[in-house]
């Protein structure tokens, strides 16, 4: 065993060590351990939130979305659409018209996201699994229906049993000159409500209607705001995305689910980075206990150091002894923190004992996902900080004699 490490270990385990120095060393390990545990736990929660959002988007967003790079809508080209449907891995393609609109029900009104979809969407949509009341129907017996989100349902106090009170949708007319009569500037559509879905409060403000209803309201005609592509279960999303880009060219955006919600995921990653930096800074402050405990140990071990010098030890060995003492504290604190952090993540994933403190249609407790790279980065950062802090008392040990 390395001589400097052997002596450092004896110092660390020595019962003769001053009780106050022993207390400071213990507090150093405790601070590093708790800081490390908190860091890996928080990073795992952010990973869980990222996965949670992906699961939510799977119910709302298509696997791939084609939209115009410039402008709000584009004209459907039948030859390209036919090639798109023939791509291996494509299950179906849905034509979409989406825009903001005003809806009214009795005395209430609300701005919603109006989404007109074709029959493919009604047959295959994953929203069926989020149905909470009524039925998932957009057209039945030549009668049009709207399928609404929970936010719209709650805000307008809608009752599906009241069939005499339909939903009224308003959308501004596409005209150059405005009429002095306000109602002549608005396209209106009265439609019954078939059902309600609930996923998560920030995504429940959609009103789904048949495509031709959205066409009439927006006056888009043959134009669409997007083509939504749903893939077969074992299809390679990247390969299909590349094939679609080859067909549609640079004039169109072809986005997967992460790219459709790039701003949200970017915000999560930035927040995760800043939280990591803040927690590492806190660990850095806590690690100054190592500096104080090693400084006091240097003072306490003057006699032993003189003896080592008399026996032929050089400055390098003395530095290594006290540096190794700091390394022992650092490694033990880091390992304990990683183990506790791992236990937290496992128990939280299994039992969900730490709640989010708010009502949610998706989860009641903080989601977690263990990412080995988070544990590794945290361990490396903590060890580097604590070893840097240990270096200065170790260097001072040689200058004292």
UniProtKB/TrEMBL annotation:
Family: Belongs to the ABC-4 integral membrane protein family. LolC/E subfamily.
PANTHER family for the chain: LIPOPROTEIN-RELEASING SYSTEM TRANSMEMBRANE PROTEIN LOLE (PTHR30489)
Pfam families hit by this protein: FtsX, MacB_PCD
Organism the protein comes from: Emticicia soli
Name of the protein: ABC transporter permease
ABC3 transporter permease C-terminal domain boundaries: 277-399
Family annotation (InterPro entries): ABC3_permease_C, Lipoprotein-release_system, MacB_PCD
Subcellular location: Cell membrane
TM spans (from-to): 20-46, 273-299, 327-349, 375-394
Entry membrane topology: Multi-pass membrane protein
Span of domain MacB-like periplasmic core: 25-246
UniProtKB keywords: Cell membrane, Membrane, Transmembrane, Transmembrane helix
């Amino acid at each position: 065993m390395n001589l400097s490490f052997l002596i450092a270990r004896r110092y660390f385990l020595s019962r003769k060590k001053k009780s106050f120095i022993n207390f400071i060393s213990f507090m150093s390990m405790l601070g590093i351990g708790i800081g490390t545990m908190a860091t890996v736990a928080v990073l795992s929660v952010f990973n869980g939130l990222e996965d949670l959002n992906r699961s939510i988007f799977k119910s709302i967003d298509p696997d791939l979305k084609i939209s115009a790079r410039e402008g709000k809508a584009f004209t459907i080209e039948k030859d390209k659409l036919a090639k798109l449907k023939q791509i291996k891995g494509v299950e179906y393609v849905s034509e979409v018209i989406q825009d903001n609109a005003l809806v009214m029900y009795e005395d209430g009104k609300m701005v919603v996201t109006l989404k007109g979809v074709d029959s493919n969407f009604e047959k295959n949509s994953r929203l069926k699994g989020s149905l909470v009341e009524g039925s998932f129907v957009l057209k039945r017996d030549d009668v049009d229906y709207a399928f609404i989100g929970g936010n719209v349902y709650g805000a307008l106090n809608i009752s599906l049993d009241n069939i005499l009170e339909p939903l009224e949708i308003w959308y501004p007319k596409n005209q150059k000159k405005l009429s002095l009569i306000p109602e002549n500037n608005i396209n209106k559509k009265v439609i019954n409500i078939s059902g309600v879905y609930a996923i998560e409060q920030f995504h429940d403000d959609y009103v789904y209607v048949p495509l031709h209803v959205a066409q009439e309201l927006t006056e888009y005609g043959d134009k669409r705001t997007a083509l939504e592509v749903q893939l077969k279960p074992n299809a390679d999303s990247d390969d299909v995305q590349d094939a679609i880009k080859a067909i549609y060219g640079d004039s169109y955006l072809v986005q997967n689910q992460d790219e459709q919600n790039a701003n949200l995921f970017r915000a999560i990653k930035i927040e995760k980075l800043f939280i990591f930096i803040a927690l590492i800074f806190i660990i850095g402050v806590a690690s100054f206990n190592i500096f104080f405990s090693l400084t006091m140990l240097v003072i306490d071990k003057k006699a032993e150091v003189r003896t080592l010098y008399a026996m032929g030890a050089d400055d390098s060995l003395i530095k290594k002894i006290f540096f190794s003492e700091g390394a022992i504290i650092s490694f033990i604190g880091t390992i304990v923190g990683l183990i506790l952090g791992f236990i937290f993540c496992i128990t939280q994933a299994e039992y969900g004992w730490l709640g989010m403190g708010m009502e949610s249609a998706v989860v009641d407790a903080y989601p977690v996902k263990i990412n080995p790279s988070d544990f590794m980065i945290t361990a490396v950062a903590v060890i580097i900080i604590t070893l840097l802090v240990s270096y200065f008392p170790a260097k001072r040990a040689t200058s004292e004699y």
